[in-house]
Design brief:
Distance between the termini: 126 Å
Structural class: alpha+beta
Number of strands: 21
Largest sheet: 18 strands, mixed
Shape: elongated
Strand content: 35-45%
């Protein structure tokens, strides 16, 4: 009786051991091996590509704790397949209602900014795809120039960036906060941008219903507000990348141009309304002149005192521009005289002026409204627009001129009608309706006599 009973107990113990120890251990070991395998990494990569709608590459995937993925060597490509945003590492925590992405370090250039702006626009407009709130925390964030070298490497300190994407049944919003580093000067302020998309139609879904499908919402039902302050100068190329769907992204002010200021705008089916103020530093005149097919040299600064938009057009604008020593194409000076009515100075009346006219300094206050375009001299230049070491090269026009003349100034010399392309065409699309001189090129804009 003893031996059979002992053997039965032994077999039972073995079965229990297999059921409670070896099998779970094998399952856990196999699952752990799968989580470290290329199959799992590929599955995570496919899930990211479906969520973002863009090619994604992930080098490594780890699971430090439940609900958390630690990703290494990540990159997001544009529609052309070229990598636009690279993350050396990131940690993603997922809950039923929120995604929280923590990034130790990120350097953002204009291409990465354009990619992020596209993703933010998709998140705002396509609630059926993005059904969870999202928070992105970047511990060490800074801008990168076109060479890919970040400013922190040259001694400029970086700071934190936090992005919050929040949704309700009738609105979706993105808030971006840029905080300076703890070691920064106490006067350094926090930069912040808020973008809110509101569906204004009466039949919005009740709480808990499926988010509004962007394809079923008319333009008349949508209102977008944009407000923010850039306390720290931002590279102009990055700003142009963020404004990827506007003509601003086609302009170049040079790699050293930086923008700071305030923006308060609202968009509806009529277009943009609101006010912008700020300052643009480090403008490369050579890059600006190249857009109009001209040559120039020097650095400039523009104080944007006020730009007011109404129904998608420029209502009022006042800018103060100044530049130090440099050179400017003689053809552009000729255009200022012939198109805007500027007056020649004594220093500009040489019998054979050079193709590139050197100058000591230049400055102007430009005002645009329904009354036309007014160009005034900077006060500290003695009433002149452009000065040379010995005398003035150019004086401002005696009276305002139609705003269309500014578009003609940037048009090709042989254009007989209103500019249909290039910078001039874009200016015509946003200029105030009043004070416009429509039709053929002004007679005084024909090539005038040499200075």
């Amino acid at each position: 009786m003893f031996i059979p009973r002992s053997m039965a107990r032994l077999r039972l113990a073995r079965v229990v051991f297999l059921a409670l120890a070896i099998v779970p251990t094998a399952v856990i070991g196999g699952w752990a091996a799968y989580l470290r395998s290329g199959w799992h990494r590929h599955g995570v990569q496919i899930a990211w590509q479906r969520a973002l709608g863009l090619p994604v590459d992930i080098g490594t995937v780890e699971h430090p704790r439940p609900g958390v993925q630690r990703l290494g060597d990540c990159s997001i490509a544009g529609a052309d397949g070229r990598a636009r945003l690279t993350l050396p590492g990131a940690e993603l925590e997922t809950t039923a209602t929120e995604l929280r992405l923590r990034v130790p370090r990120l350097r953002c250039d204009d291409e990465a900014a354009g990619l992020l702006a596209m993703l933010a626009a998709d998140w705002l407009a396509r609630g059926e795809r993005f059904d969870r709130n999202c928070v992105i925390e970047i511990d060490d964030f800074d801008w990168a120039d076109e060479s890919g070298l970040d400013r922190a490497a040259s001694g400029v300190s970086a700071g934190e960036l936090r992005v919050e994407c929040v949704a309700t049944t009738e609105a979706r919003a993105v808030r971006v906060v840029r905080r300076p580093p703890e070691r920064a000067d106490a006067s350094t302020a926090v930069s912040e941008l808020r973008v809110v998309r509101i569906v204004t139609r009466d039949d919005v879904e009740p709480a808990g219903a499926t988010p509004v499908d962007a394809r079923s919402v008319r333009a008349a039902d949508v209102r977008v507000t944009v407000s923010g302050t850039a306390a720290e100068p931002i590279p102009f190329d990055v700003v142009a990348g963020l404004a990827r769907d506007t003509s601003l992204c086609e302009w170049s002010l040079g790699t050293s141009a930086r923008v700071a200021g305030r923006i308060d705008l609202a968009w509806d089916e009529r277009g943009w309304d609101g006010v912008m103020t700020g300052r643009v530093e480090g403008i490369d005149l050579a890059a600006c002149a190249a857009a109009a097919g001209l040559r120039a040299a020097g650095d400039a600064t523009v104080d944007v005192r006020s730009i007011r938009w109404s129904a998608g057009r420029l209502a009022e604008c006042e800018l103060a521009c100044e530049t130090g020593p440099g050179e400017i194409a003689q053809a552009f000076l000729e255009g200022l005289v012939g198109t805007l009515g500027c007056r020649r100075g004594v220093a500009a009346r040489d019998a054979a002026p050079p193709a590139l006219q050197p100058f000591t300094a230049a400055g102007a206050v430009v005002r645009i409204n329904e009354g036309g375009l007014e160009v005034l001299a900077a006060p500290r230049f003695g009433g002149a627009l452009v000065i040379a070491p010995t005398d003035a090269i150019l004086w401002p026009p005696p009276a305002p001129v139609p705003v269309e003349r500014l578009a003609w100034l940037l048009a090709p010399p042989d254009a007989p009608h209103v500019p249909a392309g290039g910078p001039g065409a874009w200016l015509m699309s946003i200029m105030p309706h009043g004070g416009v001189d429509r039709g053929a090129r002004p007679a005084q804009a024909r090539p005038p006599r040499q200075f």
